[in-house]
Amino acid sequence: MPRPLAAVALLLLAPFARGDAPPPTDVLPAPLRAAFPDADRFDPSDVILTDEMARRLDELARSRIPERMVTFYVARKGPASPGNPGGQVLGYAVVQSHVVRTKRETLLLAFEPDGRIRRVVVLSFLEPPEYRPSERWLAQLAGKGTADRTAVGDDLAPITGSTLSARGVAEQSRWLLQALSMSRKAGKVP
Q1: For the chain, first and last CA: distance in Å?
Q2: Which DSSP symbol is given to 156?
Q3: Phi and psi at residue 103, in whole multiples of 5°?
């Protein structure tokens, strides 16, 4: 890249690299907009899990926590007010990837303002399509909260021939439910 072109690129991208300028709202991902159509904006909130938080999440979610950093997107609407300095919270969302058998699946989990699951969307599924969880199966996760087991064969129906897919979605849902709850209690997410 010629030096003048590189300098122009750096000048244009510098505000985004520093984090002091929000990304343009017209480039927000469509799945976030679909989950929260009334939202004016999505504020990212990075949560770095401490050793203690990760240990507690392991216990609560009954699965191994795959990552130590989670980015929750806070869906907001309206102007700031005394009780809501960033505007009304419509809910939360997180994008999470994991390996099903040998290939990755990427999910968007949308949560209600009280932390219950609103919706789960499969954004990418690289395993054979016959192993992909159906919309109908994913719909049974709506309304699940931290007190629910969220386990295949317990409060989630199994998927014949797609056990690993169903378990993967259930595990991701369990630990992210608990991570959101813990992050909200700790004040790391509004």
Answers
A1: 42
A2: B
A3: -125, 165
